[in-house]
């Protein structure tokens, strides 16, 4: 707990749901931020709480208030945390901390717009909220028209004046160390840990998705009753009340009908995933586990309780260091999965998008869609170019 400063406070409700609010230096609830955060969905409220508390601390350091801040002040703030901004930022801010990355800048811009539009609806600084409305539109691009229903008749789309210009960088994401999968599978003693490596590598799961799986989500046989995929597959469902607090990032609707899960994100399961699952279930999964979640703790006072994402990360890090691989980031398996699917599908970003559950094929292309400099076609194209 931070005394004498604005801080984010986690709230655990009787139902088990977790929400977040912002407390003032004296421990009282900040009414306006609390009202804004209450209207957000799970996951988003946590992210916005930490982005918003950073902004409120900046207001204090600049001698500003929510009631008096202007659009120019907000643009200065975005510049202070890392956005490109021509002009003085004011006092040094976030000394010793890295600037926000592109995704964090986008999130901060969305958070600030949402917060000040909400504040305007409550009669606080309505002029700033009106300015967001007046400047919050732009001409639609070709991509906007393709994405929108009746996009050919759309005259303008919503925009955020605080969002910095998006810089598209064709990155080479960090992959697992060479041969990491085989080394880990041979070096890990637990069937649960070996299943973790196999499922992350073959399924492209985010760690929150994987640790949030329930047994009813797994349809690991041909012709499952859900009727949504003939092959063995998994339904990734966003749940707010998981006992280990793991949640899926995406939130497509899902339901349980006659005891069968339908909807969510459907992800195919490989034969290796099915084999690892049955090995784990028949050797280590407790018979009396009443929570219904897939992954459980195997040792300690909380043996049999759901296994959290932080514990899965710790297991991989310890195993990587012990086996000479260095730090293992669970998300690196997702990067490897996307790259492998793109290579196997001759660069088809739609296949890669659906295989890994990305929201957009554009994201897949920008992040993973780069040519292999050792590919024969790539080499032949360069050789022919140099001969011209």
Please explain how this structure is put together.
The chain has helices spanning 31-38, 44-62, 71-80, 102-121, 126-135, 142-147, 180-187, 191-203, 207-211, 271-283, 309-322, 330-344, 349-356, 361-368, 376-387; strands at residues 7-12, 18-23, 137-138, 157-158, 218-219, 233-236, 254-257, 260-263, 265-268. The protein is mainly alpha-helical and 388 residues long. The protein has a 3-stranded antiparallel β-sheet with strand order 5-6-9. Helix 2 (44-62) crosses helix 4, helix 8 runs antiparallel to helix 10 and helix 12 runs antiparallel to helix 13 (349-356). The chain is globular and about 60 Å long. It starts with 6 loop residues before the first strand and ends with a helix. 29% of the residues are buried.
Describe the secondary structure blueprint for this structure.
Blueprint lengths: L6 E6 L5 E6 L7 H8 L5 H19 L8 H10 L21 H20 L4 H10 L1 E2 L3 H6 L9 E2 L21 H8 L3 H13 L3 H5 L6 E2 L13 E4 L17 E4 L2 E4 L1 E4 L2 H13 L25 H14 L7 H15 L4 H8 L4 H8 L7 H12 L1
Antiparallel strand pairs: 1-2, 3-4, 5-6, 6-9, 7-8
Quantity of strands, as a count: 9
With strands numbered from the N-terminus, the spatial order across the biggest sheet is: 5-6-9
> Termini separation (Å)?
67 Å
Rg is 24 Å
Q: Tell me what portion of residues adopts beta-strand conformation.
A: 5-15%
SSE arrangement, N to C = EEHHHHHEHEHHHEEEEEHHHHHH
Largest sheet: 3 strands, antiparallel
User: What would you call the shape?
Assistant: globular
Low-confidence stretches: none
What is the mean predicted local confidence, pLDDT?
Answer: 86
Helix content percent band: 40-55%
**Class inferred from helices and paired strands:** mainly alpha
